[in-house]
Every structure is written in structure tokens, then in C-alpha cells.
Amino acid sequence: MFVRNASRDPARAKLLATVLLLIFYLFTIRWIVEAKAADWKICASDHIFVTYYDSASISYPSEGVVRVQTKNAYLDANKYKDFHNKRKLPPEYHRLYEKWAYTLSLIDLRCKSREFRAISTISVDVDGKTIDSYSTKEPSKAAWNYIEPSKDPNDPFENLLKIFCP
Description:
By secondary structure, this protein is α+β, with helices and mostly antiparallel strands. It has 2 domains: 2-35, no CATH class; 40-164, Lipocalin (Beta Barrel). The protein is 34% helix and 34% strand. The chain has helices spanning 2-6, 10-35, 77-86, 91-97, 156-164; strands at residues 40-45, 49-54, 59-62, 65-74, 100-110, 115-125, 130-135, 145-146. A hairpin with a 2-residue loop joins strand 3 (59-62) and strand 4. The longest helix has 26 residues, at 10-35. It starts with a helix and ends with a helix. Residues 19-36 have low confidence and may be disordered.
């Protein structure tokens, strides 16, 4: 009915063309965003947290170094709160992180020496607001941290080493 009447009314025809063009653009934008979207794969999980890595973000900034984006999220908000309440942290920390949803980190792994360094991190709450963030201005000068060997099958760093360091 709308299309049939649009041929007789130039204003309706223009509106129809605008709506169709808008729909086309929305589908195109969605396709572009999905093409560049993260490809999260589970790296480790225990009764409180799950750690993912983004297989689409893997790069090699220098010889022997793997750069990858990770995401840490909780499986159950109540268990997360219990976990943090047992830790001896200041009250302002608890207030800041009571609505924590996940943390994204861009890290480098140095396989031969079992080390990692954080290039950037951002913690986000359940409303999508940034709680805390960190970013180094010169990634090549960031401090390396030794990854202690672990037999825990849920240790995220141990699992990242297994995945990226054959």
C-alpha cells in the first residue's frame, strides 16, 4: 500500500528512498563492524573467572614476542564479590569495582623467558563505563614480569604460553 501510493506522492517516494537507503547503510555498517570484531576464544576458566584471548588480535611486534588482547570476566557476580571481599583491600577499591564486568588487556608474551608485560588495560563496569585504565607510552620499555610455572590447568598465563609458545 505504501509503495503503491508512493509513486503518486513525491514526498512519500522520497521518504521510501531514504528509509531504504538507511536500511542499506545499517546493514553495511553492521557487516563492516562484524568483519573487524574480536574473535574471543577461552583460554582458562575456574569457578570465579573466565579468561579469553582474541585470536584476531595476535601480532608479533618483535622476534620472540607475541602480542595478544585478553579479556577477564566473572562467571557469577556473587562469587566475584565474595572473592574480593575476602581480600584485604581498601574500601574504595571495593566501591570502585563492585559493578566490575570485565578487564581488557593488551599483553606481550616473551616465550623463551616465560615473561609478559602489560601494554594497556581497561576495566569496565556493567554499564559499559571505564572503571580504571592503564597504557604505556613506550611499549618496548614496559617492564617484563616472570610467569611462574604452574600445574593449575586454569592458570591463564600458563595456558597462554601453551597456546602461543610451542
